[in-house]
Amino acid sequence: MENDIFKALADPSRRKLLDLLNASDGRTLNDLCAPLDMSRFGVMKHLNILEKAGLITTKKVGREKLHYLNAVPIRQIYERWVSKYSEPWAIGLTSLQNELEGEANMNKPKNINRIAIKAKPEQVWQALTDPNKTSKFWFNCAIRSTWEIEAPFELWNGKKKEAEGIILDMDPPNKLVMSWRFISFPGTENDTQSRITWEINTHAEFHGVTQVTVVHDEFEQARNTATVLENGLPIVLSGMKTLLETGDTLSSS
Domain 2-70 - what CATH class? Predict the structure, then answer.
C-alpha cells in the first residue's frame, strides 16, 4: 500500500489534483479537468491511480461522480517516514537554541560549531594539542604550549606566528578554554582578546563517537576576529574529523 502511495505522489499532475481537492473538495471530473492541460482520459487515469492508492475517495450523486481528498494515508506516511526523522532534529536544534538563549549572558554574542567524530575523546584531545596533528587540519598551523592552566600557547605556520593566547582552563580530555588573539591576520590588529572553549564529550547515543563543541565568545571588541573564526572553525573541525576518521587531510586527493 505504501508503494502505491509513493508512486501516486511521485507524479506532479497527481499532486496537482490533490491540491485542487484540498482547496475545494467534492469535485466532478469536469471541474478537475479545467485547471489541467491534459485530456479528459488522462485526468481519469490519474484519478484512478489516486483512488487505488487510497488518496481520494469517490461518491456517486445522481449522475455525477464526486471526488474527495482522503488525508488519512498522507498523515500515516508523514508519521511513518517524516516526523520521526525530522522532529528529533528540530527538537535538538530548538533545545540548543533555548539552552543558549537561557544563559545569564544571553545578550552576549557567541559563535557555536558542533561536530560528531568517530574517535575517542582522548584521540580528539591529542589531535587538538599535538603540533604534528594540528598542522594537518588547522590551516597548516602547529600549536605550541606546555598545556598548563595560565600557560601561553601559540599557533605557528612555518616561521610565521598566526595566533596566540593563554590557557584559561583545561580538563583533559574533555575541556579546553583559551583566550585568542590573531597576530598577523589582516583587519584584526585592533581586536581585543576573545575566548574559545572546546567541549569534548562521548556521544550520548552513538558508541565510539565523540561530540566536539567549539564556542567562540567574548568578542564584543573583536568583531573581525569573530568573522574569521566563524568561517574558519567549521573547516578546522571538518579537517579534524577527516584526519581522525580516515588519516587523510581535507586537501588530499
Answer: mainly alpha
Strand partners, 93: none
Query: Closest Cα to residue 50, out of 16, 24, 80, 25?
Result: 16
Q: Report d(CA 194, CA 182) in Å as an integer.
A: 10
pLDDT of residue 71: 64
Residue at 81: amino acid letter: W
> Between the CA atoms of 138, 143, 148 and 152, what dihedral angle is there, to the nearest 10 degrees?
-110
pLDDT at residue 96 is higher than 70: no
Residues 6+ apart with CB under 8 A from 162: 139, 141, 155, 156, 182, 183, 184, 185
The residue length of the chain stands at 253
Using CA atoms, how far apart are residues 41 and 48, in angstroms rounded to an integer? 11
Q: Identify the helix (H) or strand (E) that includes residue 156.
A: strand 152-157
Q: Is the pLDDT of residue 94 over 50?
A: no
Q: Cα dihedral sign for 216, 152, 201, 123? A: positive
What are the boundaries of each domain within the chain? Answer: 2-70, 108-246
pLDDT at residue 75, as a whole number: 58
Highest mean pLDDT among 8-12, 70-74, 165-169: 165-169
CATH for 108-246 is 3.30.530.20
pTM for the structure as a whole: 0.59
Q: What is the pLDDT of residues 48-77, one digit of tens each?
A: 999 888 888 788 878 888 888 876 566 556
* The three cell numbers locating residue 41: 482520459
**246-250 long-range CB contacts below 8 Å, 24 or more apart?**
249/136, 249/137, 250/137
Whether the CA torsion 20, 21, 27, 29 is positive or negative: it is positive
